[in-house]
């Protein structure tokens, strides 16, 4: 049995060193192993890409004196030419806005910013869930639905990368 556990740990470590997350994005074993590797800025692979019913979980703690932080789901990691951005979420603390947008073929779309309230508090934990549905992403913060963002990328399975940056500490991805 010890050999089986060692083999599993070696496989998990190999996937983490490769900079990729597996398709479960957060089984209990991987959450424990991934924790020290959740360094901002973060870039990870979503195995199999997005599809209706798939959910991305981002848990973290906002920095003490934040300006902003961002979470993006992209079609690959390419910088030149830049990868399409299916959704970019940006929490801006000076304006108390949670803006979202997308970039397709190098063109940014219309930015959306209306929210019923600003859910992030400096030096406090948060939980963002991005639920992929057929026509849209549903965004939940701390269990409350905050807004919908309708897909601008047609091929959901091409959305295979998550990028996180800014004034936060990551505690869990799932």
Mean pLDDT: 84
**What is the number of E strands?**
11
What radius of gyration results from the CA coordinates? 16 Å
Q: Widest sheet: strand order?
A: 1-10-3-4-5-6
Q: Low-confidence parts, pLDDT < 50 over ≥5 residues? A: 1-36
Q: Report the top-level CATH class.
A: Mainly Beta
Question: Do you know the CATH architecture?
Answer: Sandwich
Task: Please work out how many helical segments DSSP would assign.
Answer: 2
Distance N to C terminus: 27 Å
Report the principal-axis shape: globular
Series of secondary-structure elements, N-terminal to C-terminal:
HHEEEEEEEEEEE
Instruction: Give the strand content.
Output: 35-45%
Biggest beta sheet attributes: 6 strands, antiparallel
- In total, how many domains does the architecture comprise? 1
Protein name: Galectin
Domain Galectin: 42-174
GO molecular function: carbohydrate binding
Function: Does not bind lactose, and may not bind carbohydrates.
Which helices and strands appear, and what pairs or packs with what?
Layout: H1 2-17, H2 28-34, E1 42-45, E2 55-62, E3 68-74, E4 85-92, E5 97-104, E6 107-108, E7 125-132, E8 136-141, E9 144-150, E10 161-166, E11 168-173
Antiparallel strand pairs: 1-10, 2-7, 2-11, 3-4, 3-10, 4-5, 5-6, 7-8, 8-9
């Amino acid at each position: 049995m010890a050999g089986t556990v060692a083999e599993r740990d070696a496989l998990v470590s190999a996937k983490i060193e490769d900079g990729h997350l597996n398709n479960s994005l957060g089984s209990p074993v991987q959450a424990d192993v991934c924790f020290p590797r959740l360094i901002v800025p973060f870039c990870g692979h979503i195995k199999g890409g997005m599809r209706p019913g798939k959910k991305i979980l981002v848990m973290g703690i906002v920095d003490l004196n934040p300006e902003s932080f961002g979470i993006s789901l992209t079609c690959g990691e390419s910088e030149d030419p830049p990868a399409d951005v299916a959704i970019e979420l940006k929490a801006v603390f000076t304006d108390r806005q949670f803006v979202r947008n997308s970039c397709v073929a190098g063109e940014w779309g219309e930015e959306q910013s209306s929210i019923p309230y600003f859910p992030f508090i400096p030096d406090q934990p948060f939980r963002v869930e991005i639920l992929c549905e057929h026509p849209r992403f549903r965004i939940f913060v701390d269990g409350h639905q905050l807004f919908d963002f309708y897909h601008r990328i047609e091929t959901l399975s091409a959305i295979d990368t998550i990028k996180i940056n800014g004034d936060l500490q990551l505690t869990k991805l799932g």
